Amino acid sequence: MAPVLGNLLVLAVLTTVQQLAAEPDAVSDPLLSDSECEQEHCALNALQLQGAAVERTEESGGANASAEFNLYGYHHWSTTTMYGDAPHAACGGINTAELIRGTHYYNVASAQAMWRDCGGTGSCWCGQSGGGGGTVGMGCFTCAKGRFLHSAYGTRGRALWALNQETSESTSASTSNTTSPFASEEITLIVGDLCPHAGNEDWCPKAAGRRNTYGSFHHLDFSHYPPSIDTRHSVPNLNFVFNIIECPHDLWERQRRQSRCR
User: Fold this and answer.
1) Which N-terminal stretch is annotated as signal sequence (predicted)?
2) Distance (Å, rounded) from C-alpha 175 to C-alpha 173?
3) CA end-to-end span of the chain
4) pLDDT per residue over 39-89, tens digit each?
5) pLDDT tens-digit profile of 128-185?
6) Per-residue model confidence as pLDDT tens digits over 91-141
């Protein structure tokens, strides 16, 4: 019997050593260290959480969502201008005024860098979303929701011609006496047109991953600003913070009927 007991003792010791060696790996895995994760659904929940984390990281916009600019809970920021309406816009010849007429939506022309395969000419008929390198893609009929800020002209704070002046009318909007950073309510917008780099070199970057003169990867050229923003004397070129969203159904139906993009 003694040899048998000896063998059992050796086997017990070896088993204990193997368990101790495996413990660090086990503790490092939150699924194994959680007593509630003996059920199969825990592993599925963990995978879903990991997938959601990846989606949030991709949506965050990388370099544009940096400490240099306060996003106030949104994922991206953009400089803005205002250009009016286009009767035959780059998104399938659509009339940008008709696209949003009678609705609370806003039309924008997004920067060439935010479109796919525009090339050097900026000729992007019915262009799809591009992006990369810090630039979020916003091609034809991409939608977003966001708010205008009181700050203007990107990270520079004032127009190029006013940078060497102590005071400028162009900075009045960014020095408003208010505790809120927002200059507008939240609005929903749709991309109906292109802002080409040629002719808009200061505002609309040519390629993804490049910033404009005012420090942003993104630029949105609005057909019209919200009524709450005073544009009677000049366009204040306010900064805009936003998230990409799925287009509302009624807006999607409008572009489908009016545009030649298919």
Assistant:
1) 1-22
2) 6
3) 85
4) 443 333 333 334 433 333 344 444 444 457 899 999 999 999 999 999 999
5) 999 999 999 999 999 999 999 999 999 998 888 776 564 444 444 444 556 899 999 9
6) 999 999 999 999 999 999 999 999 998 866 667 899 999 999 999 999 999
Domain ranges of the chain: 2-59, 62-258
pLDDT at site 18: 52
Pick the CATH number of 62-258 from 3.50.30.50, 2.40.40.10, 3.40.630.30, 3.30.70.1450: 2.40.40.10
Task: Determine contact, residues 236/170, Cβ cutoff 8 Å.
Answer: yes
What residues have CB less than 8 Å from 107, skipping those under 6 apart? 85, 96, 97, 99, 100, 189, 190, 191, 192, 193, 222, 223, 224
Judge whether 191 and 244 are in contact, CB under 8 Å.
Answer: no
**36/31 Cα distance (integer angstroms):** 9
Q: What predicted TM-score, i.e. pTM, was given to this entire model? A: 0.71
DSSP string, 94-117: --HHHHHTTSS-EEEEEEGGGBSS
Q: Is the pLDDT of residue 242 over 80?
A: yes
Q: How far is it, in rounded angstroms, from Cα 117 to Cα 123?
A: 9
Burial readout 14-40 (b: 16 or more C-beta within 10 A, e: otherwise)? eeeeeeeeeeeeeeeeeeeeeeebeee
Residue 139, both tokens: 């091609």
